[in-house]
Structures are given as structure tokens and as C-alpha cells.
Amino acid sequence: MATGKVVKAPDKVAANVDKWFGADWKKYGTVDGTFYAAPSGASVKSLVWYSPKQFKDAGYEVPKTLDELKALSDKMVADGNKPWCVGINSGEATGWPLTDWVEDFVLRDDGADVFDQWVAGTVKFSDPKIVQAFDDVGAYVKNPDYVNAGIGDVKSIATTTFQEAGLGIDPTQGGGTCWLHRQASFYAANFPKGTDISPDGDVYAFYLPGKSESDHPVLGAGEFVTAFSDRPEVQAVQEFWSTDIWANLKAKASSDDTGGGWISGNKGLDEANLVNPIDKLSVEILKDPNTVFRFDGSDQMPAAVGSGAFWKQATSWITGQSTQDTVQKIDAAWPKS
Amino acid sequence: MDVAPKLLDMVWAILIFGAVIAVILGLAALYEKRGGRRAGWWFVGPSLVLLAIGLVYPALKTLWNSFRDAAGGSFVGIDNYTSIFTNSDELVVLRNTVLWTLVTPFVATAIGLLYAILVDRAKGEAVAKAVIFLPMAISLVGASIIWKFMYDFRDPAGGTTKHPIQQIGLINQVIVWLGGKPYNFLLNSPWNTFFLIVVMIWIQAGFAMTILSASIKAIPADIVEAARLDGVGGFQMFRFVTFPSIRPAVVVVLTTIAIACLKVFDIVRTMTGGNFDTNVIANEFYSQTFSAANQGLGAALAVVLFVLVIPIIVYNVRQLRASEGR
Q: Which family is annotated (chain A) (predicted)?
């Protein structure tokens, strides 16, 4: 945007987005009041992967509130299990899964308004509310009793790739070394081909619960389509991509070719076109009337923070840096303007 | 597309290429009769134009950007340079680049030289050389992935009685077999930088060995024979005959590896992504420019890298001239 090369979206695209997407989605494609980019694909990040089969054998129940999640983790420890497996290594982007954790907990502890102010930079990282969210995440991922199932100690989180971190969930091919793994809906693609991903299968996911059962915040992400040219053929493609027709064609194609893995916030998306149970679960969560959806915060923050300091400092945090140092260093990286 | 039109295209391409060459040569021949200098410009001209577009312009543009803000908009003076030399993270980047550039050339050259001398005229020399030269054939990213598996770490703390931890990394498994505790090679600074340097040494030792072995073989046999008759031992032979004779080659190898280390990017990016205090200038320059969208700081880092390479190049060229006796 700062380079001035991006072109405003044509009116027809804006009309389609008004028709097929919620107002929040349109807002994410809007900068300083000008609408540039139409949403396309989406993913739900507030998911915890688990094994329904293993849960059934051990007599565990899917938690419905954050307190229940904590109690379940403690119960697992008491039973001699390591509950959580976490991996944040992603090459240069190492640290991003932790930023999702923190964002999920800001949404749950403080609600969507504080989340928005935090993303906009008016609530600082050093604000007690954000510090508390970090520490609440730390109660899971920096707790040596909870992590790092099947992999190592707390620090091993930093050197474990996010792709392999949750594979231990699968009792058939992954050894069943891990019980809980918080990762987005797209993680389904990381399990080996043929893995039984279903509500009663080897692997499935549950919604990372809110404080209470009626509290239903959802962290998600998505792709957006914008143009660098206003030539008619470019605008025609933009327009087509913002319709329900395209969303359904795309969902059908990904169901047929890759067994699913593509969903959208498009309200015209017909669930019959989704074959993958995780995709169905994700769309259900997105469409739930109680859902308060928020887009990935680090993706919206200035790049120096959202794809720089937040990742790096969260990585230092997991390898031993204190929460105070972490939040101060991130605040220091926020661009002055 | 059928084969016939493709072939026709190829014939055309060859004809056009031939025509262009003929024109150039014709012009050159024409001017040669009138004066060598002008003919020279005809040959140098295209290279100069390409250098100006591909090298001089980007260099000046980078220098220009390094004094501007993140988006390349307004002028910020030397702010970008100030942050490189004051920010604690950037100082670690500089420290690591210094470590890379000091340690790798000497260790890799020493190993290459020792190996070259040991296998010289030994039985099975060709095979022995091929073995140490092989890593040269692997891309840096490939080598990094291999070593990432070598260093892979599983901490016993992650296991339970039901699921004890199994090592995947070869080095840690050997450590466990020997009764030691597995070690997280890529995590603990500053030692992790040295474990990354090992990868570069593994690759460059083969390069050093090849060049040095060739120049050892080029030492005239009469010098060696004369020294033998004077009764030198193995070490004296190395000190007074072999090393002085191959000194120019050693300098070339050292400086080439030093420049490769200043620019090192692939290994760091693949193995740690610059995390855990292993970042180096080239990787930081990339992340700042393309991920953190800070073009100003990225450009400043590129300029610093450029300035650091200059003395090595100057030294290299001087040595080359001296050895050519100019």
C-alpha cells in the first residue's frame, strides 16, 4: 500500500463482498477507508487436535470451557501422560504458532475489542492485559509437566517444526505420544495420506473453548485477492473470485483433488461441497451465530512487528526470556509514525 | 507444437545469431584498420552497458535506499546504520558474521591442506580425494538439510514411561550410545553458530583440498629433490619448500572461502532461519527487506556487507598481481 501500486477494487467486487461476506471480512481488505482486496480462502486457527480413539480409551471428554481444558491437561499429567505437543520452528518465520496462541488467549481473556486495540497499537504489548495473555499461554507451553510430548523439554518447542509437532497425536502412524496440539484447520494436510481424520477416528480437532460455553471467539486467517492493474480482464477475474460460484467450484475442486482442505468465509459456500470433516467443522464454527470472528492479529500488525519482532521475541520467550523483556522488545520494534 | 516448426525456429535462431556475430566481427574488422582503440570500445561497450544496468545502478540505488525509511519514502539520515551498530540483535548479527569469516577459511584451508599433503602420491589418492570433494557437489540447502538431521535432538524430558524418547539425529544417537546426554546443537548460542560453521567447512574443505593439491603437484620436482639431498625432514620440507611454493594458492583459497562466508545465507536460513542468535548479515538483510518490509535497514545491511567484502577483494587482487610478478 505504501508504494501506491495497489489498485482500488472495482465496485462490482465490493458489491459481491457485501453480499457474500460479513462486514468484518470486508474490513480486512480495506485500508484507510478504501476497499482494495476481496477475501478468498479462510482457515480456522482456534482448534485443538486430538485423537478421538485415544480419548475414548482413556475416558477423556472434550473440554467445553478453558477451565475444563486446564483440568483435562492436569488429569493427563496425573495419569502419567505428557498432554501437549508444540512446535514453532518454521525457518525464518519461526515463532508464528506462538503468536497464534497469544492471540487466541487475548481474545478469550479480554474480548474482541481489546484484541482490535492491541492489533491497532493503542493497547501496547506491555499492557498488563497482554502480559497476562502471554503468561496464560506460558502456563501451557512453558509448563515442563505439559510439554513437549514425544519430543523433548520446553526449549525443544523452538527447534521442532510446526509441521511435525502434532504428528504424535495419531495413534496408528504417529505413535500416539501426544494428546493435545493447538493448530489451525490446515494442519489436516500434515498427517500422512490415509490417516483417519473424523469425529470418531484416529485424529480430529475440537474448538479451543472460551471462558464459558456461550463465549465463542474464533481466531482465523485467510487469503485476499488484490490487483496491481485496472485492466478489464484483471477486474473480470477479481469479480469472479468474489462470487459464491467461484467459492463452490474451488471447494468442490479441492474436495475432488486433494480430499478437501479449502474453505472460505463466503456465505454462499454449500457445505455439501466439502468432504473433509475438518473443513465441515471449520465452516460450522465460522457460521455459528455465537461466533465472534477475528482475523489473525500478527498478520494485521505492521510487518516489523507482525512478521518480525513478535515471531522472534516469542521464540526467545520460549527459550527462556522473561515475559517482561519480551513485551518490551516487541513494543520497541513497533514503527514510530 | 510439431517438431518441424521447432526445428525451423532453431535454424532461424542460429542464422540470426550468426548474422549478429558477423556484423560485430565485420564492424570490428572495419575499425581495426583505422585504429585499435575504437575497435576496443566496440567490444567493451556492451559489457559496460550491462554492468551499468545490472551492477552499478542497483548498487547506487541500494546506497540511496539505505538512507531512507522502511518504505523507501522519506530521508532518515544515518538512522539505519545507527541501528545496525547499536541494536542488540543487529550486533549479534555482526558478531556471527565475524565468527564465520574468521573461523571457516582457516579451519577449512588447514583441513584441505593437511589432507592434500597426506594423500599426495599415496595409494588410492583419487578415491580419497573424491570422498572429501563430494560435499562440494551438494547444494548448500541440501547440505544444510542433511546436517539438520545429523543434529536433530529429542530431549528425554518429553517422554513418559509409556512413550520413552527415541533419538532421530545420528550425532545425538551416538552420544546416547556412548552413555552421554543428548545435546540441542542448534539452540544454545554461541556454540550453535560453530555447528553451522561445521557445515560450511565440510563443503569448503574439499574445495581447498582440490586447489592446494593441484598446486602441490605443480611444485617443480628439482626443488623437492634438491631439498631432499640437503637432508630436510617431512616438517622442514613443508615449511621451507611446499608452503612457500603454494602460498599464492593458499591466499586465493582463504580469500575465496572468506568471501563465501561473508555472504553466507543458505545454511543459516535453512537450519535455524536466523533464530537462536545465529543470524548473519546476508540473512538479516533478506528478512528485513522482504519479510519485515524494512527496505531502508535491508539496504543499509547490504551496503555494510559490500564494504566488508572490499578489503578482501583488494587483498586478493594485490596477491594475484604480486604472484604474477607485475
A: Belongs to the bacterial solute-binding protein 1 family.
